[in-house]
Amino acid sequence: MKQKRVALSLGGQLHGYHGTYRLLVLMLSAMLVLAGLTGCTEDKGETAEKQVLKVMDSSEWSFSMEYGDYINAAFPNLEVQVSSTSDAMDYALPREERLKRMKELIASEQPDLILLGDDSMYKALADEGLLSDLSVYLSEDNNLEQHIHPGIIEQMKQNRDGALYALTPNLRGQLLFYNEDLFNRLGIGLPQDGMTWAEILQLAQRVTQSSSSEGEKAIGFLPAFPGPSGLANLIGMTDQLGTYPYRVSTGVMTVNMPAWQHVYRTAIEAYKSGTFELGMEEGNGEQPIASYGEPGQTDLFTEGRAGMVVGSYRAYQDVPFKLGAVGAPVDEATRTRSFSIYPGFTMSLRAGTPMAQVGWDVIAFIMGDYVAKVRAGFTQDGSSDNAIPSNITYADYAKDPIIKSIYRQMPSNLPSDYGKLSNSASSEMADMINKEVSNTMMDKQTFEQMIEQMQTQGQQLLDRELKKK
């Protein structure tokens, strides 16, 4: 594969791109000059020998857009050559084929720095021994080590060896948004940081009931997925049980576990109590769901007829009421972990690269305090970018105080399950679960009978699918 050179002047290749990006570059350059960091490692002068860093990313354009000018400003004597992973990471291909192609691409291109937007591929390459352990480098930089969100370090170590084979400069978080005007009109206390799903649903029930009596006709909470089963999936992820009550890789149905039973009981009771009743009345019996606050999209929350909703950071900015936000729902066990915080793309060093130190210098710079500070100064009101730096010093400079609520969250440690049901089997499983839940909602069977039916039928389906492999 032909490698492409990335040699950008400040803002040069992106001439014509919106002026705010060039402003960011100029701000970064000024900071580097003032801090005396140009060159980033040692002051070797402009006559230092040019070095070449081979980078593997989804495309040359993607790398240039994200970090081309950053690196040129900090490393003027470094030439970057980019190899694209777009063909190897074609998601029309099975996971095994993508891994095979990535291994072949790494062997042929011999990159120094590898950028990935797929967490499962990062773990697969780490397990194959193709990436370098970054913990040695990070341990020598106490300042950086202390400023990286601990949940990011934790997630990057979720591989076979438990080693740190990557860092990610970005994390994405979700928040519990609420209609402050509605809560105030109803005389109900506002949501708080660190609430569990059970507490949020109890609060939602109060909003629904109070709004009905006051003629507001509002729903207390607007879910992302319809029905009790969808709500159970969200609670299960938050409580670190998994997305579904089964493990395909081991062929085990887990819905009869006490923890999963508690999840389904919580979800069903929320619906039986009428928490979502008004929304379903307006939706002709169908559960209205959230639009995620994307620009131009509307839902009951944007219309002011829902008390709370979970959405990505910077979602729901254009609403006709006073918008409040706190941290997303947390697990009951620790009250700190949430499925709503997760890493962005990863940066790794290829095992055996002769440019390991230079590659690490680039990673450390992008992860560092200076870039976080520049990004805080650059971020504008109305931005739709929901990524924030994994460097927590960003909160010291960012104008938005809600950032600290995101940084207080730790990610859920979901059990690994690389197994996959066929589309037909997955649909059959979902239909079975929804049917049993529906029968329980209509009092056609007890909760205990529902669990027994789901466990028996689900296990039979998994056994049948495993025999096909």
TrEMBL record:
<dbReference type="Pfam" id="PF01547">
    <property type="entry name" value="SBP_bac_1"/>
</dbReference>
<dbReference type="InterPro" id="IPR006059">
    <property type="entry name" value="SBP"/>
</dbReference>
<protein>
    <submittedName>
        <fullName>Carbohydrate ABC transporter substrate-binding protein</fullName>
    </submittedName>
</protein>
<keyword id="KW-0732">Signal</keyword>
<dbReference type="InterPro" id="IPR050490">
    <property type="entry name" value="Bact_solute-bd_prot1"/>
</dbReference>
<comment type="similarity">
    <text>Belongs to the bacterial solute-binding protein 1 family.</text>
</comment>
<keyword id="KW-0813">Transport</keyword>
